[in-house]
Amino acid sequence: MTHAVASARGQALRRGWFRFRQSGLSMLGAALVVAVLAIAIVGPWIAPFPGHVAGGVDTANRFLAPSLAHPFGTNELGQDVLSLVLAGTRISVLAGLGVVVLGTLFGTLVGAVAGFAGGWTDEVLMRLSDLKLTIPGLILAMAVAAALGAGLLNMVIAIALSWWPGYARLVRGEVLARKEEVYVAAARAIGASPARILFRHVLPNIVSPVVVKMSLDMGFAILTVASLGFIGIGVRPPTPEWGTLLSVSRSYMPDFWWTAVFPGLAMFVAIFGFNLLGDGLRDVLDPRARR
Amino acid sequence: MLEIENVTKVYPGRQGMFGASPPVTALSGVSLAIAAGESFGLVGESGSGKTTLTRCILRLEAPTSGHIRFDGEDFARLTPVALRAMRARIQIVFQDPFASLNPRMSVHDIVTEPMVIHRATLGLGARQRSARAAELLDLVGLGPQHLHRHPHEFSGGQRQRICIARALACQPAMVLLDEPTSALDVSVQAQVLNLLADLQARLGLTYLFISHDLGVIRYVCDRTALIWRGQIVEEGTTERVFDAPASDYARMLIAAMPEVRFD
Q1: How close is the nearest chain A Cα to the Cα of B53, in Å?
Q2: Using one digit for the tens of pLDDT, what is the confidence trace for A82-103?
Q3: Least CB–CB distance from A192: residue in B117, B145, B150
Q4: In chain A, which residue's Cα lies nearest the Cα of B102?
Q5: Contact B65, B8 (CB under 8 A)
Q6: Which of A190, A197, A200 to mutate to test the interface with B (most CBs of B within 10 A)?
Q7: Model pTM?
Q8: What ipTM did this prediction achieve?
Q9: Per the CATH hierarchy, to which homologous superfamily does domain B1-14+22-89+176-256 belong?
Q10: How far apart are CA A54 and CA A87, in angstroms?
Q11: Cβ atoms A144, A157 nearer than 8 A
């Protein structure tokens, strides 16, 4: 019996994997994401100058151009930019992930309740999320981060607060569609409770679009985290974070371009990877949206 | 067993910014009585209110007026808890077997779900439920090797058998069959109809069999009613309705039935 389960699930997985592999861009995205995640985990340990990551300075070697010893050059404090970028991956990716996960949890909750309950509950929750959408996300995040004080966790909370309405709207729409399915009517006829219908019959069937949106949003979340770092309400130096690194090096452009270009490149690679992966996942999980 | 008394269902019209739609009367003054152990056929064309009636009987929707009683109890007067307990006794098999099974659940989970919901009254443990699920699959002609597969791995006829197994899981007294064979191939239709007849004989079920296929109704049902634009236009034993139809609509329908001779 267990063999039958394994073969059925395995077959579906193999089919999906085959379709995913057909697209070179999807595979590139997956490779980039895996690389970025791997660096996020081991980054601080493979940094060639761990002392610089911890805040050590080496003023004798300020603004060295990229060379073999310092492939990404050094910054205004003589710190190795490669080490900072590698170590910063963890903070940026973790913060991006935190934003997307928090936003998804809260947005899914709001959207599921609104779509499932309907009526006044739906109106109130959706007008709230519309209200949120009228406020530019970055400005709200700035206000919240300023109110809560700087720091990684506060920043994640601040961005997640401006992040949930997208998920709420997506999930509400999916729930509205799913709750008209015949198998939901069948469950009601059996006597299933509303909670059971929502958690067993409706939500499991809307996982795919949510996962796709999470992957597509990851890149943008990383970018938003970096933006907050750039305007100085995110992570404070000496903790390395891509946006903060960019912000500091802004004053040394264009002469010492390497201090800004390499953190920017790291962001580009991460965002590009997550977007390609999201597109690939959408093609596999949501066949209707395929071009 | 099931008494439907003067049931009317009106769907309210809409007053929108871009014009209004008038209210739709899906059922008007429908009265039927179905006795325990019989097969009652309900025939009507598309849009005649057949499906609305099943939804009202199952209390998926509330009728605008009138009463529906099952075993003498009015669904509208039951508390939510009592209503849920009642739902174990009257079950439905839907028309489209491709839409009526949750694609994310295994057959085991689909068939045991009613027993999980009504575990307080049935008193079955997890292991007993699994054993009963295997029994039910056997009853509808599927082997226990199918328990851990998902709906997408089955054909239409097999899926309809799974739907029947789910409907029987709580040992209901009555099963509503909402065009259970119209989405199936002709050869599979006959198998499913024979299965339903066999189950009725073995388990003493009461059927409300809804169809637009007169041949199927004639084959399965003891008594038959004709519904037309939300009203019952004819009711009687199946033989009487087919041999001596009283209303014009019934005469028209039966005249339109294709005659098939195999000799």
Answers
A1: 14
A2: 888 888 888 888 899 999 999 9
A3: B117
A4: A183
A5: yes
A6: A190
A7: 0.81
A8: 0.87
A9: P-loop containing nucleotide triphosphate hydrolases (3.40.50.300)
A10: 10
A11: yes
